[in-house]
Each structure stands twice: as structure tokens, then as C-alpha cells.
């Protein structure tokens, strides 16, 4: 079975802190994704990566950056956390291609005070 | 741009009732369509998918048919169980998009009462 793990289930940070969210997949997938999930808005894509060291902006990249130094790991960075970044963050991975199933981690619920 | 619209929730049903969750889409190309489910406290998992017009996806008693003429992919189940309580997301992937990006609807919460 594909396994996607995220470093934390719950995280509480203060405004202005730098926040790292880590995601690791164990199935040698080429594609990795970061979404945020908010009530009534569904999932919105922040960034995705289709190869090591490659990244593409999604629909809401402002205030975020990403890093993919190894194929299995994709990090989301909040350079200076703000209260409007309080949300559920979901990581996913998939094989290359538009028709492939995305496999999701359990999510990190981030609260920024 | 491409978009997905789902019926608003929450939807509350009694056990063994019939379920329909409506999903319509707008796409310039020929998308593939997906239903994902999120059980409480978990990430999303694929429920079913369809890759071309008139395809029917099915899994765990759920079905959805890709209707190009009505740009719809409605989710149905004949008899729901308490264990089906979850949030359901409709999504599309354009065949031409780079990197396999998905566009999600806003999600529909389903609550099934005994």
C-alpha cells in the first residue's frame, strides 16, 4: 500500500514564526502536492512538484514556498506565519500523468495565534 | 478556467436510504472525473473514477456515470450505512494538464443516522 506521512497531525505556532511541514511518500511517486483545506472551499492547490528540485505554483502560492531535494520528500514552508494561514494542510503524491490516482496523507491541522 | 461544483451539505440520511450527491463540471478539454472520500480524522482516498464519456465508476456500492452532455458526475448509492458518514469530494483532471493536477469541488458532508 502507498503510504504518505506528514510530520505532525496538529501544530500551534505564533504569528511571524517560520513553519515547516514535511511530507514523505514511500512509493517512488514522481508527483507531489500540497493543498490547504478550508470549510466551504474544498481543497486548493498551493504548490506541486513533478520531479526532484522542480516546483510549480498552484492556485494559492502566496505566503508559501516549497522544497523537494529528494524524490520521497516534499516540504511546505510558511516563511512568516499569519493567522489567515490557520488551516488543514494535506499532502498528496501520485505517479506521473493526468489520470493517476493521488494518495493523501492524514493532514496537519495548523493553528496560528 | 476549469471548475467543479457540488451540491451543498450537510446531507443527513437514515440508514438504508438512497444517496445522490450532485456534481457538475466546467472544462475546456476532455477531463477525467473522480470522487474522493474523507473519513473523519483522515486524509482523502479515491472512491471511484471515470476517464471518458459514458464510463461508469463503481466501488463499495457507490456509482457515478460520466455524462458529457450534462457535464455531470453524480454520486449514487442505493443503501447507505452509518459507516458511509464522511465528506465527499468531486474532482477533475484535464488530460492535457501538467503534473496531474486535480481541481476539487467544495465537498459535501454526509451524515448517516442509525
The total of beta strands of chain A comes to 11
Largest sheet geometry of chain B: 6 strands, mixed
Estimate the strand proportion of chain A. Answer: over 45%
What pair of chains forms the biggest interface?
A-B, 29 and 26 residues
Strand proportion of chain B: over 45%
Outline the low-pLDDT stretches of chain B: none
Question: What average pLDDT do the residues of chain A reach?
Answer: 93
Fraction of residues in H or I helices of chain B: under 10%
Helix and strand succession of chain A? EEEEEEEEEEE
End-to-end Cα distance of chain A: 37 Å
Structure, described:
The complex is a heterodimer of chains A (113) and B (114). The mean pLDDT of chain A is 93. In chain A, strands 2, 4, 5, 6, 9, 10 and 11 form a seven-stranded mixed sheet that branches. Chain A has a four-stranded antiparallel sheet with strand order 1-3-8-7, with no helix packed on it. With 113 residues, chain A is mainly β. Helix content of chain A is 0%, strand content 53%. In chain A, a hairpin with a 6-residue loop joins strand 5 and strand 6. Chain A is built from no helices and eleven strands. Chain A has strands spanning 4-6, 10-13, 19-25, 31-38, 42-49, 56-57, 64-70, 73-78, 87-94, 103-104, 108-112. Chain B has 114 residues and is mainly beta. Chain B has no helices and twelve strands. Chain B has strands at residues 3-6, 11-14, 19-21, 23-26, 31-38, 44-50, 56-59, 62-65, 75-77, 86-94, 103-104, 108-113. In chain B, the strands form three sheets. In chain B, strands 2, 5, 6, 10, 11 and 12 form a six-stranded mixed sheet that branches. In chain B, strands 3-9-8-7 form a four-stranded antiparallel sheet, with no helix packed on it. In chain B, strands 1-4 form a two-stranded antiparallel ribbon. In chain B, strand 7 and strand 8 form a beta hairpin. Chain B is globular and about 45 Å long. Classes of the chains: A mainly beta (113), B mainly beta (114).
